[in-house]
Amino acid sequence: MNNTLQLCVQVLVHVYLTAVISRNQEGPGEMGKAVRIPKDDQEKMKELFKINQFNLMASDLIALNRSLPDVRLEGCKTKVYPDELPNTSVVIVFHNEAWSTLLRTVYSVINRSPHYLLSEIILVDDASERDFLKMALENYVKNLEVPVKIIRMEQRSGLIRARLRGAAASKGQVITFLDAHCECTLGWLEPLLARIKESRKTVVCPIIDLISDDNFEYTAGSDMTYGGFNWKLNFRWYPVPQREMDRRKGDRTLPVRTPTMAGGLFSIDRNYFEEIGAYDAGMDIWGGENLEMSFRIWQCGGSLEIVTCSHVGHVFRKATPYTFPGGTGHVINKNNRRLAEVWMDEFKDFFYIISPGVVKVDYGDVSVRKALRENLKCKPFSWYLENIYPDSQIPRRYYSLGEIRNVETNQCLDNMGRKDNEKVGMFNCHGMGGNQVFSYTAEKEIRTDDFCLDVSRLSGPVIMLKCHHMRGNQLWEYDAETHTILHIITQGCLTVSKLYDGSQGTTVEMCNGGPLQMWMLRNYTLLEVIRKVFYSPLDYKL
Ligand code: UDP
Ligand code: MN
């Protein structure tokens, strides 16, 4: 190359880099910054927000290929992955998604993945009604550097059946599912595929970063939380427990074994997806499929991990923008019943007793899914609780489940606020589950899905605190003959009392054998009998 040409190239490179860098700093939302909407546009912005339940005006202002910060742990940036990785199809299902979020998802995949690892991108349109998602979308994706296939569902089917359709059409060795409002960051794909190459039956999730629904600001998700769920079968993030930190010898760049996944973003070996039973096609619209898949993977011999070196952003919304044909509650309850009936064995009681209305919901035929569980020789839910999720909100062993009724007042213990540090109240027993459901566990805690009965001193008010499993203030001994609930550390008895603010509550007082200290634990004896049937003698060293 002669000198002039060399200089020319250098100048061009310089101009290009300056352009990229200046764009990085100046355009709306560049480097993942928040977008500010001027005062004059605020009314319009609020109107537009309703369409997708996120700030559409902000999203539309941001470049479809905006820059993002590199939020990875330092140790992740220097990791080297094998050259020979399996390739992946990326399946994105959508119903009435906004143009800018959908296309920004697609661009982030194309621009931040090595192309030899991308088999194709499959967009599954779940019967959207918006015009721009028809021909305009089809024409637009023709010009992209990676093959993009669009599949249309004939009728609204929900994300589960839409993903099944996308998976069936895919050709890659791995299937990567993404929501339609994601942004993949630098180096997101390689660690996911490398982990699957290492271990074919491992289903992997990236860390899900937060894209603000208000201003599209990009914030790193935490590598210190993992997936769990509560008695209502709501997916929840919980801190990664010490045992999992220890297993990884403190190396936060190693994958975290997670009891459940959030559901929208994960990669799975394509053949394994089929072997393990894909999805439950009997589930409608949205909800429950993430726990169903999580339980199934663990119980049937696979594993589920969060690969902490992979970061993908997702727009988290506070409300759903679309309709649920049949009603939101009905659809979610139906899906959750299918999940509980097939996978949770007797532990489905926790779900049914806290939400008694659910048992009226028709969940259709689950015989095919039960047959799958048989054929795959999957382990019981108690195994999952013991080995995969010992810090679960659902205790593996327990004495009672249901209301706790006082003999004198005939009222029930009530976890009023379902908040940390809230006093435990006494209210008329309503038999509707919810805040009046408690479980007396083998660890001798009296707990709800999130909190444990806790008291620090004699005559002090009994409150609900995060269960810490350190015994101490959370240890109780029920005597089924005298019906007393002894607080072991203070040697006081659980008592109905007027609290200092005049409300009816509970304290621990010197035991006096009186009826204000006598309690009936619902299902107490019944579950004693069930335990004798289900658990081995070892379990009786309580
Ligand atoms: N989705 C779909 N059909 C539906 C409901 C949802 O295709 O009936 C798509 C939706 O467009 C999104 C993904 O499924 O890409 C997950 O839905 P959503 O983002 O509403 O769930 P969230 O992330 O809030 O849990
Ligand atoms: Mn989503």
UniProtKB/TrEMBL annotation:
<keyword id="KW-0479">Metal-binding</keyword>
<keyword id="KW-0735">Signal-anchor</keyword>
<dbReference type="Pfam" id="PF00535">
    <property type="entry name" value="Glycos_transf_2"/>
</dbReference>
<dbReference type="InterPro" id="IPR001173">
    <property type="entry name" value="Glyco_trans_2-like"/>
</dbReference>
<dbReference type="GO" id="GO:0046872">
    <property type="term" value="F:metal ion binding"/>
</dbReference>
<comment type="similarity">
    <text>Belongs to the glycosyltransferase 2 family. GalNAc-T subfamily.</text>
</comment>
<feature type="signal peptide">
    <location>
        <begin position="1"/>
        <end position="22"/>
    </location>
</feature>
<keyword id="KW-0472">Membrane</keyword>
<dbReference type="InterPro" id="IPR045885">
    <property type="entry name" value="GalNAc-T"/>
</dbReference>
<keyword id="KW-1133">Transmembrane helix</keyword>
<dbReference type="GO" id="GO:0005794">
    <property type="term" value="C:Golgi apparatus"/>
</dbReference>
<keyword id="KW-0464">Manganese</keyword>
<feature type="domain" description="Ricin B lectin">
    <location>
        <begin position="398"/>
        <end position="522"/>
    </location>
</feature>
<dbReference type="InterPro" id="IPR029044">
    <property type="entry name" value="Nucleotide-diphossugar_trans"/>
</dbReference>
<keyword id="KW-0328">Glycosyltransferase</keyword>
<dbReference type="InterPro" id="IPR035992">
    <property type="entry name" value="Ricin_B-like_lectins"/>
</dbReference>
<dbReference type="GO" id="GO:0030246">
    <property type="term" value="F:carbohydrate binding"/>
</dbReference>
<keyword id="KW-0812">Transmembrane</keyword>
<dbReference type="Pfam" id="PF00652">
    <property type="entry name" value="Ricin_B_lectin"/>
</dbReference>
<dbReference type="GO" id="GO:0004653">
    <property type="term" value="F:polypeptide N-acetylgalactosaminyltransferase activity"/>
</dbReference>
<dbReference type="InterPro" id="IPR000772">
    <property type="entry name" value="Ricin_B_lectin"/>
</dbReference>
<keyword id="KW-0325">Glycoprotein</keyword>
<keyword id="KW-0430">Lectin</keyword>
<keyword id="KW-1015">Disulfide bond</keyword>
<keyword id="KW-0732">Signal</keyword>
<dbReference type="GO" id="GO:0006493">
    <property type="term" value="P:protein O-linked glycosylation"/>
</dbReference>
<dbReference type="GO" id="GO:0000139">
    <property type="term" value="C:Golgi membrane"/>
</dbReference>
<comment type="pathway">
    <text>Protein modification; protein glycosylation.</text>
</comment>
<keyword id="KW-0333">Golgi apparatus</keyword>
<protein>
    <recommendedName>
        <fullName>Polypeptide N-acetylgalactosaminyltransferase</fullName>
        <ecNumber>2.4.1.-</ecNumber>
    </recommendedName>
</protein>
<keyword id="KW-0808">Transferase</keyword>
